[in-house]
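Data deposition worksheet. Section B asks for the primary sequence of the deposited chain exactly as it was used as input, without tags or linkers unless they were present during the calculation. Section C holds the resulting structure in C-alpha cell form. Section D is free text for depositor observations; keep each observation to a single sentence. Incomplete worksheets are returned to the depositor.
Section A, Depositor: J.P.
Section B:
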Amino acid sequence: DCAILIIAAGVGEFEAGISKDGQTREHALLAYTLGVRQLIVAINKMDTTKWSEERFNEIIKETSGFVKKVGYNPKTVPFVPISGFLGDNMLSPSTACPWYKGWTKETKAGQTTGKTLLEAIDAIEPPKRPTDKPLRLPLQDVYKIGGIGTVPVGRIETGTLKPGMVVSFAPAGVVTEVKSVEMHHEQLSEGFPGDNVGFNVKNVSVKEIRRGNVASDSKNDPASGCASFTAQVIVL
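Section C:
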C-alpha cells in the first residue's frame, strides 16, 4: 500500500544512494514497478549532520527530482527528518530541529500535515481493494502439514477466499474444496486482496499443485489459458 524510503543524510551516503546505480534510486523504482503508489521519505541519520536545515533541504530537492522521474508526485510525498538511532521525530516531535515545521502532503482527499514518521504512516490512504473481481491467488508455496494435509500458501490479488469455496488450480486443472483459510495462525471467515493466506484443501496431494499455479473460484470466471497477454516490462 505504501513504501517508506529511508535515506541516509550523511555526506557521501546520500550521494551514493541516488547515484546512477545507487540503491535509493533502485528501491524507489522497484516500489513504483510493484504498484506501490504512496511513498514516505524518511531522511535518517540527521544527528550526524548536526540537524542541518541546509542539508535537509538539499536532500529534499534532489530526492523530489528523482522520485518525480520514477513516477511519484513529490507533492504527495511527506519528507520527514529522523534519527533512528536516537528516536528523533519517529514517534514524537524532536526538540533537536527547531527549524523543522513539519511535513505536508497534498492528495485528492486534501492536504495533510504532521511532524513525525508515525503521523506520516497514519496518513496513508487505504487503497480500494478489488474484492468485486473474480478470485486470483498465485501460489507462493505448497506445504504438507501433519494432521491437516495439503496447505497452499499465497497472496490474494483479487476477489475473496472463503471456507467451503470450490477452487480450481490453473494450469494444473485440479478442482477441490477449501476446508479452512488461515492468516498469521488465525482462522479467517474470509480472505481479502492483500492478505497472505494459507488454506487447507481436500483430497489433493502436494505433488498435484505447485508454486506458480493460480487458484480461482471454479464457479466465477476461473483462471484459464490465453492466447496472448499484455505485460509491463521494466528493465532495471
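Section D:
The chain is about 15% helix and 30% strand.
The longest strand covers residues 174-183.
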